[in-house]
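Human: You know discrete backbone vocabularies at least as well as I do. Show me how you would write down a chain together with its backbone fold. No explanation is needed for now; the record alone will do.

Assistant:
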Amino acid sequence: MTPNAFAGRLTRAQTALREVGADWLLVPASHDFLWLTGAHARSTERMVLLAVPGEGEAFIVVPRLEADALRQERPDLAQLVWDEHEDPFERLAERAMLSPTT
């Protein structure tokens, strides 16, 4: 499949998010991740996920050691790369402009 076909899938996901009033779709490394992106993400203890906002650009949250492999498969998808000393949940919250709960 072409990147355009996967872009169409992401667009349809965003449309569905808006229709149900959801802000985000977070898809971990899985068959769903592959179906939406066309990229193979390894499921490990490190966070790898596709973040699809209702509005705006989808991106992949990925540890630095896995970033190059995903970039080779989908160079057109933005990445939020995190290092071992960082908390990927905090990085995701910052990028998504979410307020932390107490």
Q: What stands out?
A: The two ends are 44 Å apart (CA to CA). The chain has four helices and four strands. The longest helix spans residues 3-20.
